From TrEMBL:
Residues 13-164 form the Isochorismatase-like domain. It comes from the Bacteria. Keywords: Hydrolase. It holds the Pfam family Isochorismatase. One of its GO terms (molecular function) is hydrolase activity. It comes from Microvirga aerophila. This is Hydrolase.
């Protein structure tokens, strides 16, 4: 059993990606869609770098929503999404079994839409004793208000709210952890906006690139 006041560690966590599909992303109005896609790709890549089990589930791929978005699938090429008919991952036996099969009781959850497939799954997982962290900036809702209300409902039920960059920094915590340093830094530089620019700048100032043609 994990200590609910303790920081996240890779060995405790699994990532659950819910319905990151273009057909659903079209309906997202709670945030910029490209930013949402980038945040989710960053979160998925973070899970890869830190060796977290990743479960991806989709819904209605053939009739409306389409497959897992390519930018996310590219980051997790070995993960095959489990397609469902139900909105709630917990009410689809193969998807639920995949979560349970990870052996992890701390779930990091990202998905579309916040008001439905995300919140239904999170509320069900909480009821089953899981400790759930909702990565709010990697979730999208129909409107800013309905997205916020869904986050608030999940939080009031016991879910913890977080962001993709906090997940990454919490898992890394010490930049001298060499086994994940390069991967974590690369994610921040690629997706971290001004923070990523700052890391790139600091690296170049500390160890400037060699002049063209130099063998040093």
């Amino acid at each position: 059993m994990t200590n609910k006041s303790s920081l996240l560690v890779p060995s405790d966590c699994a990532l659950l990606l819910i319905d990151h599909q273009a057909g659903l992303a079209f309906a997202v109005e709670s945030t910029d869609r490209q930013t949402l896609l980038n945040n989710t790709a960053a979160l998925a890549q973070t899970a890869v770098v830190f060796g977290l089990p990743i479960i991806a589930s989709t819904s209605a791929t053939k009739v409306y929503s389409g497959p897992l978005m390519p930018a996310i699938q590219k980051v997790i090429p070995d993960v095959q999404a489990i397609d469902r008919r139900s909105m709630n991952v917990w009410e689809h036996e193969p998807a639920r079994a995949a979560v349970e099969g990870s052996g992890r009781k701390r779930l990091l959850v990202s998905g579309l839409l916040t008001e439905a497939c995300v919140s239904f799954t999170v509320l069900s997982a909480l009821a089953e004793g899981y400790e759930v962290y909702v990565v709010g900036d990697a979730c999208g809702g129909l409107t800013p208000t309905s997205h916020d209300l869904a986050l608030r409902r999940m939080e009031s039920a016991g879910a913890r709210m977080t962001s993709w960059v906090q997940v990454l920094l919490e898992l890394q915590r010490d930049w001298t952890r060499h086994e994940t340093y390069d991967g974590a830094r690369s994610i921040v530089e690629t997706y971290g906006g001004g923070y990523g620019i700052g890391l790139s700048y600091a690296r170049d100032m500390i160890k400037p690139p060699s002049p063209a043609g130099s063998s040093n």
